[in-house]
Design brief:
heterodimer; A: 4-stranded mixed sheet; globular
Chain lengths: ~240, ~240
Amino acid sequence: MSHVGAINQLDVSVLRKSYLTASGESRLVLRDLAFVLHQGEVCALIGPSGSGKTTLLRLMAGLDPDFEGTITHPPDQKLAMVFQEPRLLPWRTVAQNISLAAPAADPADVAQIIDSLGLTDHLTFFPGELSLGLARRVALARALAIKPDVLMLDEPFVSLDNSLAVRLREELAALVEARHVTSLLVTHDIEEAIRLVDRILMLSTKPARIIAEIKIEKPRRAMTDAYAAAIKNEVMERQLKPPA
Amino acid sequence: MLRLASLLLLFLLWQSASIFAGPRVVPEPLTVLTTMWHEIRSGALVFNFGVTLMRVAASFTIAMLLGTAIGLVMGRNKTFDRLFDPWLIVLLNLPALVIIVLAYIWIGLTEAAAIGAVALNKLPVTVATIREGARALDNNLEEMAQIFRMPLATRLRHVLLPQLMPYIAAATRSGLSLVWKIVLVVELLGRSNGVGFEIGIAFQLFDVALLLAYALPFVGVMLAIETFLVQPIERHVSRWRHQPA
């Protein structure tokens, strides 16, 4: 269930979340999982594939109310999400996809987001005419256009080629930094998390719970490859260490 | 060009049939055209046409609106679907004539009974078609709309309706052809005007020319509605599909 009225942007406490398999068996996905997302921070949830990261994101976004625990957030919090698939309306143009999600947005602000993401020349295109990379940018522009208090990103660069993923990651980092958006990135890519966030929350395998928390001390722009490698090692070690 | 040749062939076949069977059974095309012109000049054809078209429009609109709403609910709500699916099967299999006769017996030989009977005949087909569309709705888009807190009107117009459009178009096309055929039967059985009533008169007089003079323009109008109204609207709303990926 969700509660309104917290100080932090999101206060997550999931006691149990299970689902029924096709054979009618109850399978526990999340157990005793709690963390807080602070105002202005960029946080990553990383964990092995199938550990329940997307399930957790869906609970936090209010898409699945069927769980034991609480998700607390401030009243009238604006939440935006970039899904794994862009989820654009195929029958509406790029401009319409953005304006339908953010009808009250300041046109100048939207124009700036569109420009930053290199979408100016594609506003009249239908999603079917876009490459996956461009469609992902539109999904990001749509999310940022509503000026969200919390931005959730579910594996936003999955199935993109590496060079494009790196470029999009840089664009995202610049936008999130410039707009001071509290963000939560779900990923299984450690490198991606290190380059984008202030804090990494590591999930265990099913039933998932948080097994470690790693703070990224260096500013993202000043991050050296050596520092990134050290963090990566730390994450790998903690993943290998059995949970207490 | 091929269509023109096809129509010419049909015309020739008709003319030959008239020679073979005799003008009383199959009147010549020119005789039918003369009768049609006579009916137009007297004002009878235009009046009866107008009345029938009004009945078609009314019953079609009722069946489409009601059928879309019910189909949508049945497609999205399993309990509702299970509860009313047997009703739908009964209605789908009930002969049109039974519904028409029952409507006239229970409500009387009124305009409401006529329009209601036609709408009720068309309703289950619309429900079944739209239900399929509702079952195929993309939940991912619904979740996206929920996350971005899109108002209900926006969701209906920009998320739901475009997904249902192919099903609505299919229901419209099958509905138009079904409704106008049933309207003629309803008029034949219980109204004192309309194309169906005039066809009944022609039947009693064994006047095949009069019968065709009323039937052919009606088929033409329905074809025109399909070609100049339904198809262009369908093309417009599905133009996004034709974009190269």
